[in-house]
Amino acid sequence: MKPIQVGLLGIGTVGSGTFEVLRRNQEEIQRRAGRPIQITMVADLDEARARQVVGSQAQVVTDARAVIANPEIDIVIELIGGYGIARQLVLEAIAAGKHVVTANKALLAVHGSEIFAAAHAKGVMVAFEAAVAGGIPIIKALREGLTANRIQWIAGIINGTTNFILSEMREKGLSFDTVLKEAQRLGYAEADPTFDIEGMDAAHKATIMSAIAFGIPVQFDQAYVEGITKLEAQDIRYAEQLGYRIKLLGIAKRAAQGVELRVHPCLIPAKRLIANVEGAMNAVVVQADAVGTTLYYGKGAGSEPTASAVVADLVDITRLHTADPLHRVPHLAFQPDSLSSLPILPMAQVVTSYYLRLRVADQAGVLAKVTGILAQADISIDAVLQREAGEGENQTDLIILTHDCAEQRMNQAMAEMQQLSTVLGPITRIRKEELN
Ligand code: NDP
Ligand code: HSE
Fold first, then answer.
1. Which ligand is nearest to the CA of 108?
2. Out of 114, 132, 245, 405, which residue is the most buried by the measure of CB atoms under 10 Å away?
3. Atom of ligand 2 nearest to the CA of 130
């Protein structure tokens, strides 16, 4: 039986895992796919390192275009990353009639529409299970397993690096920089780790999921993005006292007027399963009308967990070789001519609840003024925690949990509170999701 021949572009963390998993499990993978799948050609800038990984089992080149030009190659895997050369190579592979597998969420979140249109026109697949939540088959779950449902919202811990940082800081009291370096050493972080810590990577993934869940185009430029760099250890402690954990969540939610698409740190009740997802693990909660709530949990980053998803895509494409090309699963779950124009909502219109921390003067009437501003804005309070001022201290922290309100109203109330002479520093605001 003629093997499906695969060309691999970029053999770093995920590429080497992909090569190894395919080599180790080749017999079982062949039984599942119906044909042997072999990586026969690898391109990487570091030829010597690539050769160390593949030995004599594949041809190694430095020019990725030589792989695309090889007529024997059926599928091209892009594991270089970024929007630059990766975009050109993916489009060239499609133009050459190759199916493409990629783990590159940045590329798809920003240039997905162009890439999927090119693939559709050429009749090839672009498979990207590894692009969201690493080894968790969340794309397949959303696109196929939940296809009967009207999806209401998705909320996920979808960046392993930031979850690892938050967990290690909370559990071991380690510093942000120390844990980030460890995440880089373990191969979790992006080539540019600011993508992780500033929330961009999670927003890339949330953008892809929003498209699949709601049948809208990928619109990364409309996403609200806030990372974990401004989080302070004291807020993590106060949240715990109130029965919450702070996690970086990616949220895509169907609202009356459009779609909320946002990534930011979030208070989650500690009793929720997702609040207890630690380290580089990822978890995605999906709320849908027929099935109710489903939760998907697993390793969201790293060499072999991500390779697991890449190889699954190779098997899917291999199976397509015997199937009717007109009846393939659409890239974004909905048929390309049936995408909806549902808008992504501006953050001001998003409705959520809040944790506020105010540094205030420890004097009578402060609490009344603050709560008065909230009452005037029609923002109802859920809980208040006031830290006892220490001996000789004349200021203290005031923590307020609110019920739901529109972000615009909260912005106005915060601006008013900030003007009070008794509020002594910038107010910290973290959004809160009950996920019930
Ligand atoms: P790495 O940086 O480890 O690997 C990328 C490889 O591509 C490197 O070996 C690099 O060589 C090589 N490369 C760069 N430019 C070229 C080029 N023009 N031609 C050929 N090879 C090139 O990245 P990862 O494996 O971590 O990530 C790959 C992709 O997978 C990214 O899109 C990432 O976002 C995604 N991803 C990563 C996950 C992870 O856990 N790491 C999880 C899920 C997705 P050199 O080092 O010499 O520059
Ligand atoms: N940098 C990403 C993360 C890799 O930490 O989750 C997986 O997509």
1. 1
2. 132
3. 8
